[in-house]
Structures are given as structure tokens and as C-alpha cells.
Amino acid sequence: MMKKTTSSVSYTPCEDIAALLSQASEEEFDIESVLFDNLSLEDGVYPNLTFRNCRFVNCRISACTLERAALIDCDLEQCDLSNTMLPKGTLQRVTVSDCKLVGATLADMFLQDVTLERCVARYANLFGAKMRHVRFSNCDLTNASLASCTLARTNFEACLFTRAELFQTQFSGMDLSSCDLAGISLSGGELRGAHVNLEQAAQLGVLLAGVLLKEP
């Protein structure tokens, strides 16, 4: 199913994000076609929220807990979600652009048809996430945890994996040649069958057993 274009959605502006999220969580209704523009939210707990066809622009949602949140057909642009917890949530047909996810907890999430571009996700925790048709482009995943993830048709383009933890996540068939893999933590065969460049192979040496060298 294709995602609706932003221009085809008629949004209702949100004036009080804390009040709306509290009411939706307590009354268990979906938040649909809402524009969150230049709003701030901090330290709140809002479980089991579902957002449909919503747009978040220049919002700061910091140190909140949004367990089992679902975002479907949504866009996030220039938002700060640092230290926010979204464990066991769902992202489906979502675009995340120019956002900060520093220290965010995205563990055990399900991501399908998702694009993350130019995002800073240092120290983010994606442990156990399941990703299908996900694209990371020009993202900073320094010191992030991508351990025990399940990746299907997932692409990483020009991403920083510096000192990232990749334990027990299989990257077979993926082209990582444009990424920075310096200092990554592996337990063995995570990169077996992945495509890397000659410089990466020389840098990581024995950690790259079974990788496929991509010609320059």
C-alpha cells in the first residue's frame, strides 16, 4: 500500500501536544491527520498511541516514554527525539528527515517501508528491531546498538557506524561500502556476505571474514 503524499492530506494543527497525547492514551483513540508544528514535550509517559497520516515539524519530544507507539503514514522533519523511549513500537510507511535521535530507545521495534535520512542517532538503541524495506541515508549511528536486529531489504548509504554494536545482526547481501565501519563491535560472522570496499577490509582485517569486496 502506498503512502499518501503530504499535499493530499488535510491536517488539523495541534496546539497542546501533551493534552492530546494524554487524552488519546487514556481514551484509546487514534490520532489522525494532525500537524505537530514547533511543539515541545518532555518527560511524559504516553503508552499505546497510534498516529495516522500525521506530520511532525521542528518538534522537540525529549525523554518521553511512548511504549508500543505506532506511526503509520507519517512524516517527521527536523525533530528532536533525543532520549525518548519507543520500545516495541511500529513505524510503517514513515519518513524521518533531519532528526535527532541521540540516545533514543527503539528496541524491539517493527519498521516497514521506512526512510531515515540525515538523522543523528548516536547512542540510539535499536536492539532486536525488525526492519523490512528500510533505508538509512547519511545517518550518524556512532555508538548505536543494532544488535540482534532482523534486516530484510534494508539499505545503509553513507552512514557512520563508528563504534556501533552489531552483534548477531546479519548484513549478508548488503552494500556497506559507502559507510564508516571504524571500531564496530562484532561477535563473528555478522558481515559475512556483505559488500565492503578495500579500505574497510584493510581497516577491519579478520573481523571481515567472508565479506565481498566491492571494486572501486
Could you please describe the fold and organization of this structure?
The protein is mostly beta strands. The chain has a domain at 170-216. Helix content is 8%, strand content 28%. It has 2 helices and 16 strands. It is elongated, with a radius of gyration of 18 Å. It starts with 11 loop residues before the first strand and ends with a strand. The relative contact order is 0.09.
Outline:
elongated
Summed over residues and divided by their number, the pLDDT gives a mean of 92
Taking pLDDT < 50 over at least 5 consecutive residues as the criterion, the unreliable ranges are none
Number of helices: 2
The count of strands amounts to 16
Largest sheet: 12 strands, parallel
Distance between the termini: 37 Å
**SSE string:** EHEEEEEEEEEEEEEEHE
Radius of gyration: 18 Å
- The proportion of strand residues reads 25-35%
Helix content: under 10%
* Structural category: mainly beta
Topology:
Elements: E1 12-13, H1 17-27, E2 31-32, E3 34-37, E4 40-42, E5 50-52, E6 55-57, E7 60-62, E8 70-72, E9 75-77, E10 90-97, E11 110-117, E12 130-137, E13 150-152, E14 155-157, E15 195-196, H2 198-204, E16 212-213
Parallel strand pairs: 1-3, 2-5, 3-6, 4-7, 5-8, 6-9, 8-10, 9-10, 10-11, 11-12, 12-13, 12-14, 15-16
Structure keywords:
single chain, 216 residues, mainly beta, twelve-stranded parallel beta sheet, two-stranded parallel sheet, 2 helices, 16 strands, elongated
Summarize this entry quickly.
The chain has 216 residues and is mainly β.
